[in-house]
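C-alpha cells please, single chain.
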Amino acid sequence: MTMIWATRGWDWGFRFLRDGGLDDPLDVYDAVFVGAGDATELLVHRDGYTGLRFPDPAGRTDRSGRPIPHEFVLWAGVVTDLASVEAGRDFVWPLVAREYDATWLSPTPPE
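Here you go.
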C-alpha cells in the first residue's frame, strides 16, 4: 500500500519509514499535518489525503522514555471513510506492525 509513515525507534530519531514513492515526502507530510498541533491522537482529512497519528499500539517508548508516535499519510482512494483514530489504527497498523517490530530496537534507522 502506498503511504507515508513517520516514526522513531528506541535509539533513532523521527524518520520516514515509508515515503509513498515520493522523492521528498516531507512536502506532502507537512501539507497534511499543517496546523494539526501536537495531539497524541489525530485524524485529519485534507486535500485528498488522510493524516493519522497515534501512539505505538504496544506502548513502546524511546530510550528517553518518551512514547513513540506513528504518523501516516494515506492517499484518497486507499481509505475514504475513516471516521476515527481507532478505525485508522485498526486499518493501518496490521500493514506495518511486523516491519516495526523488526526495526524499532535497531541501533540505526532503516534506510
